[in-house]
Amino acid sequence: MFVASNILPRWLEVLLTEKFYNACIIHEEAKKNEKNVYCLDCCISLCPHCLSPHHSHRLLQIRRYVYHDVIRLDDAAKLIDCTSVQSYTTNSAKVVFLHHRPQTRNFRGSGNFCSTCDRSLQEPYLFCSLSCKIDYLIRTTGGISKYLLECNFMSLPEPGSDDGLMTPDSILEPVGSSRTSSGSGGYGGGSGTVECRTLACTATTEIVRKKRSSLSACRPVCSQVSEISAMNRRKGTPQRAPLY
């Protein structure tokens, strides 16, 4: 959907067209060689083994959820105005998608939708991803310069605290969803611990209910079998009546 343009600064154009999480060619024999870091100064993607020469540069951690690239909302907000872009809460952090996600159905009913790709959104958001907002601004205003922010410092998380990979088991909910404890929009932190405990308790309750249902369903059958066995034991071996 997004077409690279000379209207964009170089770092943003490359960020939106770069393929992340490919294996690093330079360190192809090393473990954890996925290119999941973007250097804003050199405009290239890096793997963890490539970071040493870039330690003083502005580095952006690219995360992934089910084959889609996301970045932390806090990081994105240092680079560009993220107003009206729907954010999500996962792993106790708010993230935004870099690109729009293909939809399985093209049906459009009533409700709120992305102004670029028609994906269903929560109120009052207008865009499902950063690229959708950028594409919209280029089409309607001719540029995005007034939406870009000056960022002189961007650091990576502490080593070992975040590998950037969000598995399909992670909870990815829109900010403001009833399943999350964070508010809609904004930059406040969510209560990930409370959410996880609630979901764990719910899952445990469902398991207990299923086990009880299975036991209760089995009891009548087991009782019938026991009664039949008892009757067979009481009846004993049939004997013929004596002949006179």
UniProtKB/TrEMBL annotation:
Q: Which InterPro entries match?
A: PLATZ (IPR006734)
Note the superkingdom of the native organism: Eukaryota
**Pfam annotation, one family:** PLATZ
Q: Which PANTHER family match?
A: OS09G0116050 PROTEIN, PLATZ TRANSCRIPTION FACTOR FAMILY PROTEIN
**Protein name as it appears in the record:** B box-type domain-containing protein
